[in-house]
Specification:
about 200 residues; Immunoglobulin-like; alpha+beta
Amino acid sequence: MSEPENKEKPQETEEEQYARIKAIEKLEARNIPKVNYKWYELGSNICIELYEKNLSEGELSVRLDENDNSQLFLTLRGEEHLFDLYGTVKELSITLKKTKAEIRMVSTGTPAHFPVLLKCEGRINAAKEKKYKELDKIGEADKSNNLNDFFQNIFNGGDDERKKAMMKSMQESGGTVLSTNWSEVGKGKVEPKPGH
């Protein structure tokens, strides 16, 4: 009886990862409402600030889908926009101001915190997070990329003559010259080189 083949998915190149993330962003961008807004949360209260000047009471309305309290429908001057919220909400209210409208609601999910306002933003962030974790792994491998580690690796990887040359040149020059060439350094005193 033969063993099943271990079929690993080929590693994505950086260009393929970038293209995949851009494709997800483009696909999910269709789910972002085409209105000018920002949002913030304070405890379990969420506020969407809709930037639209001189709105009157009949020009803006909001409602939740009767079957899904994470689906917020905002009607602005006759055009409906869907906010597919990250979590469920209740208690909608609107406050009109001169340059904006504030749409307030209370989160009913557990936990009440929204890391993003819209589900599509969460999917975009998840794709980016995967890429960032891979970059973090690469960064860990390159962690010892500082100058001291560089010189330490040269010293540790060298033979006795290289080590003697490095020690003698640094000590005699007061830290202004570093050489790995013992045949040059062993001939005499290493003079300091100011400004180096």
